[in-house]
Each structure stands twice: as structure tokens, then as C-alpha cells.
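User: Hey, my collaborator sent me this sequence without any context and asked if I could get a structure. I don't really work with proteins. Can you help?
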Amino acid sequence: MNRLFYVASTVAMLLAFSACDDDDENNTDNVASNISETTIEANRFVHDVMTDYYLWYNYMPSLNYKNQPDTKAYFDTLCYSGDRFSFIIDDAESYLKAEEGISTEKGWDYTLMLYKSNSDDVIAVVNYVYPNTPAYKAGVKRGDVIMTVNGTQMTVSNYNIFNSGTATYGAKRYNATNDVYDDVTYNIASAQIETSPVAEHSIFDTKIGKIGYLLYMDYYDEFNNELSDVFSEFKSEGVTDLILDLRYNTGGAMLAMQHLCSLIAPAANVSAKDLLIYYKFNDKLTSYPDYNKESTGTYFEEAEAGNSLNLNRIAILVGSSTYSASEATIIGLQPYMDVYTFGYTTGGKNTSMFVLQPSDFTNQKTGKPYYSSDIDNWLIAPIVAQYYNANDYTFDTSNKKGIKPDYEFNEYSYDDMGTLGNQNEPLTALALQFLTDGTVEGNKAAQIAPQIIAHSDRFGGAIISKPIK
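Assistant: No problem. I've predicted the 3D structure and written it out in C-alpha cell form, which is a compact way to encode the shape of the chain:
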């Protein structure tokens, strides 16, 4: 799942729409006779939200929502051409469960790649397998290269078959002893699973002291207590440096980002409740006091000053799946400590979103729900702001990429991708070498970065070119 950093729903959800309480030109147009009242109501919800909240509302075409037969298509038409992230779904319950770490999946994180740079064949390289999930029980391993689904080769046209509910996967697994890829097969059925984003953590004894490692997969604030437990262990064990692995973390809740940063940064900044991130909204919203820089800022948690590792530097592992809250963590910490990044250029999402349902809104005049309960299954997540750090900095995303790492490294160039949480895993080893020696080996730093080809979906995924021998 590609999760996205969003602004908490506590920010003035009952703000009166200019579109909600006023008649507009759409309300006077004729209604198409073949469109149901429920569809028109869902379209009205989309129209109202996008008109008032959407960051790029001034780029939207003028369309009569009453004449739009497909709500999702209508939403897509309203989105700005440069918007890769806004989305709409008609199954709010499943999305909200996923936000709590509960979803119907197989329990793996993977990256889709072209089999060869001159081929349309697609493969999936497994990055991580969550414990006690269908993929784990089927014997899937990190580094497995999945070639076929139900006997069919994936291509750029059909790779969505990878997410089939129940499937037989044909894969290749590297055999280090013989330096070959062995064929493996597994049958996996999706199931409802609950996974913790605090996936792996370790403590490495080095010549400069103890260095902690944390693989953090998602920004779920429901798991903040687990984060605190890990950092409590780090602190009690005398950890003096940290490797934060965000290379597969596509983002999430700002409350989780705030908590994580508060457990890392210099205690003096945490105690002072210094600013981490603030947001710039559209000109309609910034006319309200709740949407200025001070009101929308995310600050260090003062209560965590005594629990912070009180670091003055950090090594962060990144990749093309590092988005949003992960990128906000990087730039949010930069004004207060030395942040060193290792891996591949991040995904590039310096924007935030509201996650909204029809039930979030009340008619300002009557106090009753503004929308019919018939559309309560809909959920919309429009981009509403760009985020900046305390130095008024954000990163450039014009090339559909994000933060270029200090040390570029392609983990997929290794046949043996290693074990996450182990100090010999290639990218972790690179960060450890830098933290302990202040340098990196030339052959590691010079790894050729993978070729990126954008997915056709709007979530900003990537297909990475990597030949398999």
C-alpha cells in the first residue's frame, strides 16, 4: 500500500464551504436524466471539497457536477495535471482499517521492475516480508525475484495481476553457494492482517560505540508506543548514533512523524517545542487564522525531551519508495542536526492532504449533516498544502523525484540483498562505515542508480530496471 502524509482531521473540519451554503452556477443547470441521485450527491461532495480545499483549485475546469455519470472520473478530471497523489475511493471502511495497520494483503513489501531495460517484461523484487503473514508462511524471502503469476509473465500492460487475491507465484531465489538463481514456487492467498510499522530494530557494537538501527515501514500514530519502547531500549543500551531505514516507507500521519522526530533530535530543541514542519494552503484557506504558519505548524513534543536520544547527527536510508512523511522527517530534522542520506532519490511528495468523508461536514445553518448518509462509503483525499521546514525550505519535485541522497546507492545491484537489521546488509553497511569512519568505499558510493519509469497509477510508484542473470 502506498500511504500518504496527510494533515490531521482536527483542523477545522466544520469550516463552512463557500460552495455548500451558497447557490452556484452548477445548482441552476439541468440534471442529466440518466444519473442517479446518489451519484449526483457524491459528485456534489467532490465539487464542494475540491472547490474550497484543493491546493490547485484555480486550475480546475468548470464542470456541472450534476451531469457527471462517474464520480471517480469526475474527480480525476478536476485534478491538476501535476498532481500525482490526490485520490478518491468508494470503500472508506477498508481505507480506514488500513490506516490502523489492518488490511487484506499478503504481507510483503516489493518493488516492480523491468526485467531488462529493453524489455516490457516486469518482475517484482521482494524487499521485506512481515512476520506471521501469508507471504511469510509461504516461505517468501527478501530478495526473491517473482517472475510469473499463475504461470503468466508480468508485463507493463498486465502487472496488476501481481495483486491477485489468491495466486501461484513463480520466482527465482539467489543461491550464494553456487552463484545461481534457483526456481521457487509459492501459493499465497490474501488475508486480513495487522502489521506493525516498527518492523525491525538492532543495536550494533562498533569502534565508536553503540549504533541503533530501525526499519520503520509506515507512519501509523497508533504504534507510537511501540516506537517509544524501541527508543527506550536504545537509550538504556547507550546508543549514540542511529540508522533510520525509511527506504520502503511511503508516509502516513504527521503525529507519527512528530513523535519519531521528538525521539531523535537534540533534547534542547525538543524541550523548546521548536518547529518541525508548517504548511502553505491555498489562498481561500489562508484567509482563516487556523491556516496560518503558526496554527498549522508541527512542533517537537516537549514531553519527549527526556526520552530523546539527543543526537546531533543521523543516517537515513532512502529509496524511490520514500515519500511524504519520510521526506518531511528528513527536512524537518535538518535545521537541528546533521542529516546524512544514503540510497536512491526519494519519491518526491512535499505536499499534504486532508482525508475527508461526507460525515465530516455539518450544515452551518441547520446543524444537520450536510450530505446524505447514502454516500458515507466515499472518501476523498485531495492535496491541500505544501510543507516547509523551520528554515522555510522544501525540496524541488518538478522532475517527479524528491531528495537526492548524499551517497547514492543501488541495493538492487546486489544478488544477495542481505537481511534487514543485520550490519552486513549492503546499504546498512554503507551507513555504518560512514558513521564509524567518516568515509565510504569508492565502489559502494559509485553504484549506478536504477533507471526510473513512472507507473501509470497516480500514486507515484516506480518500475526500476534491473537485469537478472
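In plain terms: DSSP finds eleven helices and 22 strands in the chain. You can pass these C-alpha cells on to your collaborator as they are.
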